[in-house]
Write a structure and sequence with these properties.
Length: about 240
């Protein structure tokens, strides 16, 4: 089967998942990540979850808040109950997890994302090892841009893929600028991704994590599909 590819709703429409889903209609998207990166976004998303039309997507994931200020981990777990009941994969930043017992309840639905250079943990294979050992059913959301920023040689990316080959549950695909913000793929980023295709599992969904105007969404999806299928840059562009 072709790899499922889609967008993060938070990238397409900041804080507006209905608008983001609408921009994915009539596109080739077969995956979506429903984003609640900020704490205030989680409760409304969970409230609306059962009413959202996601029939188009073979893969649906939820991105939990990237930092906790108002809630603690037990609160987040309670709020995530609708996502747990739906069976959706739940993406969590590695540095958010401090009380492992709370997160074990998610089993294989928990998908831990590797971090960028701004964070103090969760960036490398060695930093992820203890966390994944403590959460033996959890999977890994490999953010290719984070991994490349931490180690531009891609040795660390390959180390993560080689150490956890059966635990990769989702990919994040983008490029990071100097402020660690996600942007669309440059040819350098494309070349980097294609250089490690032999290590990437072919059946893992890929989520694009950058903004694209609605008229351009499908072109970005098709471009990403070509890149991840191994077509050369000149063919994909």
């Amino acid at each position: 089967m072709p790899r499922a590819i889609g967008f993060s709703t938070g990238s397409l429409a900041y804080g507006d998942y209905p608008a983001a889903l609408e921009s994915l209609r009539c596109t080739t998207a077969t995956a979506v990540e429903l984003s609640a990166l900020r704490e205030r976004e989680l409760a409304p998303l969970m409230r609306d979850l059962k009413t959202l039309d996601v029939a188009q997507f073979g893969h649906v994931s939820i991105h939990a808040p990237s930092a906790l200020h108002t809630y603690d981990e037990a609160d987040i777990m309670r709020l995530l109950s609708p996502a747990r009941e739906a069976g959706y994969m739940i993406i969590v930043h590695a540095d958010v997890i401090t009380h492992h017992r709370a997160w074990r309840k998610l089993g294989r639905q928990l998908c831990i994302e590797n971090m960028d250079k701004r964070k103090r943990t969760g960036r490398t294979a060695s930093e992820l090892r203890d966390l994944l050992d403590s959460l033996p059913q959890a999977r890994l959301c490999l953010d290719l841009a984070h991994a490349r920023q931490v180690d531009p040689s891609l040795s660390e990316t390959i180390a993560i893929l080689c150490e956890f080959p059966t635990r990769i549950g989702q990919l994040h695909v983008s490029e990071l600028n100097a402020e660690s913000r996600h942007e669309s793929l440059s040819y350098g980023a494309v070349a980097a991704i294609q250089s490690i295709l032999g290590f990437l599992p072919t059946d893992v969904p890929a989520i694009l994590e950058y903004h694209a105007p609605p008229p351009e969404v499908n072109a970005h999806l098709e471009f990403a599909a070509k890149i991840l299928s191994g077509l050369k840059i000149r063919e994909a562009g």
